[in-house]
Amino acid sequence: MVVKLSASEAIVLIAKTQFSPFTESDWSAFMGCEADEPLIGYNGDYCLVLDGETINIIHGEDEYGGQLFSFSEM
Questions:
Q1: What is the Cα–Cα distance from 40 to 19, expressed in whole angstroms?
Q2: Does the residue 1 lie in any domain?
Q3: Does any domain span residue 2?
Q4: CB of 16 within 8 A of CB of 43?
Q5: DSSP per residue over 13-72, as a string?
Q6: Cα separation, 61 vs 43, whole angstroms
Q7: I want to staple 43 with a disulfide (CB 3.0 to 4.6 A). Which of 17, 63, 64, 71 is the partner?
Q8: In terms of residue numbers, what domain contains 37?
Q9: Has residue 35 been placed in a domain?
Q10: Would residue 15 count as lying in a domain?
């Protein structure tokens, strides 16, 4: 199941999510992150990964890796 969010829905979800620094397990799960200090947060059925100017919002039932948003494009 793919859940698509609009940019405005993504911003609200980001604002309501508490983020924390990556753990070793997070680095294993998201090895493609390029930021020196990416952040991760959970909100309901969503996992949000903040990687520099990019955020990946992943719904718990999404088999395809989530939805990317770029802050420079929002």
A1: 5
A2: no
A3: no
A4: yes
A5: HHHT--EEE--HHHHHHTTT--SSS-EEEEETTEEEEEETTEEEEEETT-SS--EEEETT
A6: 14
A7: 17
A8: 7-70
A9: yes
A10: yes
42: its two tokens: 């959970």
**Are 56 and 33 within 8 A, CB to CB?**
no
pTM, two decimals, is 0.90
Pick the closest to residue 53 from 27, 14, 26 (CA basis).
14
Residues recorded for the chain: 74
Residue 71 corresponds to which tokens in the numbers above?
């802050």
In this predicted model, what pLDDT tens digit does every residue of 17-73 receive, in sequence order?
999 999 999 999 999 999 999 999 999 999 999 999 999 999 988 888 899 999 886
Residue with tokens 């949000």: 48
Number of domains in the chain: 1
Token couple for 23: 């753990």
